[in-house]
Specification:
about 220 residues, globular, single chain, alpha/beta
């Protein structure tokens, strides 16, 4: 089993300290929502985010959207060999059922994520499509219990993705932020740091390269139940 974690993702509801600022109140009012029930989005809340800690990297739910569309539509996911997680800057972990089909439309996606962060679950009846837990990245990696690999431009280049395709499984970690480094203390769990390119890659590009490898490497003749 391959575990994909989009880690330290900049997916969060509007923080209380900027909830009353005009740009936030206006955008929330257009949707008939309270400001604190809306996702922070730098494209809409840029002026309100001035002075907010880590403002230059926060409010990027679009990164999560792109990465999840790739992961949940992938061959390895449809074969039942992928588990997909999002870990947010606030240590909320979202686990997605492999059958989840997310909206392609960004507006509908943000509405879905708002509901998920507020209620802790999305699904139909007894079927849960996504659920949340409060958990740090080191605890999540430890719980998954298989070798962990972080993808970063500063990682080792002398590797092959095929080395990650053992029967023991692997946990693959891609940063869900636009630039900078992980906020989580990655020294608290054992891992290797690997590079996919000498150049900086956006998170969705890294995810697409990883998924393309598994599409080629893993056999998909059997359909998972």
């Amino acid at each position: 089993m391959v575990n994909l974690i989009i880690a330290d993702a900049e997916l969060e509801l509007v923080p209380e300290e900027i909830a009353r600022r005009p740009a936030v109140r206006i955008s929330a009012g257009r949707r008939n929502r309270k400001a604190e029930e809306c996702l922070l989005d730098s494209s809409m809340h840029h002026s309100a985010m001035k002075g907010l800690k880590d403002a230059e990297r926060r409010g990027r739910p679009d990164i999560v959207h792109f990465c999840l569309l790739l992961a949940l539509d992938s061959s390895i996911n449809s074969s039942g060999k992928l588990k997909t997680f999002v870990h947010t800057r606030n240590d909320t972990v979202i686990e997605f059922d492999r059958t989840t089909r997310l909206p392609r439309n960004y507006g509908r996606f943000t509405g879905l994520m708002e509901g998920l962060l507020l209620s802790g679950r999305i699904g139909t009846g007894d079927r849960t499509l996504a659920s949340t837990r409060e958990m740090s990245l080191p605890v999540l990696v430890s719980e998954l219990g298989v070798p962990a690999f972080i993808f970063s431009r500063g990682g080792a280049h002398d590797h092959k993705l095929s080395d990650l395709s053992s029967d023991d499984g692997a946990t693959l970690i891609v940063g869900g932020f636009p630039h900078g480094d992980f906020n989580s203390d990655t020294s608290k769990f054992r891992h290797e740091t690997l590079s996919l390119s000498g150049e900086r890659l956006m998170a969705w590009t890294a995810v697409s390269l990883i998924l393309s490898h598994y599409h080629t490497y893993l056999p998909f003749r059997e359909t998972a139940i």
